[in-house]
Automatic annotation (TrEMBL):
Gene3D superfamilies: Cupredoxins - blue copper proteins (2.60.40.420)
Protein name stated in the entry: Heme/copper-type cytochrome/quinol oxidases subunit 2
The UniProt record lists the keyword Metal-binding: yes
Subcellular location: Cell envelope
Organism the protein comes from: Candidatus Brocadia sinica JPN1
Length: 123
């Protein structure tokens, strides 16, 4: 019985420090430059809303929810992560190709949820 309780606690806590990595990281050059970006999520906005990175960069987004549970989705990179209420999540991807990649909240957070989005510009 104790082992089941411990297992449930471990599973519950593992969602508090979610890390989602893009599959392209596996083929990323070992010496790719790293760009860390801190973001916040709150009803109904991401800050910053527009992120600019250089092509060939290993991007690490550290996202903090300032209020309720949010989601973060970048379809082109196959990224879908939950940001717990007043918690954090880390997203990593390799900005291999130039372009504009939209992101959005993927966890319903209220009436303005569908306008909670932004974009990553890879130059």
């Amino acid at each position: 019985m104790k082992s089941i309780i411990v297992l449930v606690i471990v599973i519950a806590l593992s969602g508090c420090a979610a890390v989602k990595k893009d599959k392209a990281l596996e083929s990323m050059p070992y010496d790719a430059p790293v760009q860390k970006i801190s973001m916040t999520a709150k009803r109904f906005e991401f800050t910053p809303e527009v992120i600019q990175v250089k092509q060939g960069t290993h991007v690490i987004l550290e996202i903090e929810s300032l209020d309720v549970t949010h989601g973060f989705k970048i379809e082109q990179y196959g990224i879908l992560v939950t940001i717990p209420e007043k918690g954090r999540a880390t997203v990593e991807f390799y900005a291999k190709e130039p372009g504009t990649y939209p992101f959005q909240c993927s966890h319903f957070c209220g009436a303005g949820h569908f306008g909670m989005n932004g974009k990553i510009v890879v130059e």
